Amino acid sequence: MAETSPDQQHRAIEQKRKGCQVGCYDMSDSLITKKAIATGIKELLKKKSFDKITVSDITQACGLNRQTFYYHFQDKYELVDWIYYNEAISIIVDDLDYDNWNSKVLQFLKKIKEEDYFYINTLKASVENEFREYLFKVTVELLCGVIHDITSDTGVNDKDINFIAEFFAFGLIGVIVAWVQNGMKETPEYVASQLKYMVEGTEKYATLRYQNKLQKAGDDL
After folding, report:
1. Closest by Cα among 138, 159, 157, 147 to 206
2. What is the pLDDT of residues 152-190, one digit of tens each?
3. Which of 18, 73, 133, 143 is a Cys-bridge partner for 165, taking CB atoms 3.0 to 4.6 Å apart?
4. Alpha helix (H) ranges present in the chain?
5. pLDDT digit string (tens) for 48-68?
6. Residues whose CB falls within 8 Å of the CB of residue 4, separated by 6 or more in sequence, listed in order
7. Are 137 and 115 in contact (CB under 8 A)?
8. How far, in Å, CA of 179 to CA of 124, rounded?
């Protein structure tokens, strides 16, 4: 699969953001059905582990048939990805920039804390790595957009922007997933403040280092 540049990733995130804004208010039949299916799996996750839940269980829980489920989702994993994005990640996507990233993360943490049983259960599933990778991929795309804005006049190339984004995404997702898997014992405010302490200013420092590297390379020519 061909790699996408931070510019392309930034545009993709903007398109997703706009689509989410429409979806949040467009109560079409499809969206209503997806929400019903999402509610079905959430109710099941209060009683049993994700690994033991089948598509038949989900359709019975929400009163729909299997054909309707497969019309909207390929499988239960895509359903969980949809819930992650539309109910939690969309909070961060909307108008994210360097100045508001921490408040966005706090809103995100509060949201997943509200339905802790869902996120704890899915991130403790045997396919936990699949969900972690999905969160990582989306976070890299978001960070590429933020870093691209910071470095727009610095000459830092797309490859370096992507490297910086991946570095910080590993840290952010690692901390958040560990918090969830440990039962969310700390408050969202505490986790957000720790992330702010560790991250704030570092992205700008990292991009400045890359800018200096470019300037030095130019001076050596």
Report:
1. 147
2. 766 778 888 898 889 889 998 999 999 999 999 999 999
3. 143
4. 6-25, 29-45, 55-62, 66-72, 76-84, 90-93, 101-114, 116-122, 128-150, 158-181, 188-199, 202-220
5. 999 999 999 999 999 999 999
6. 12
7. no
8. 12
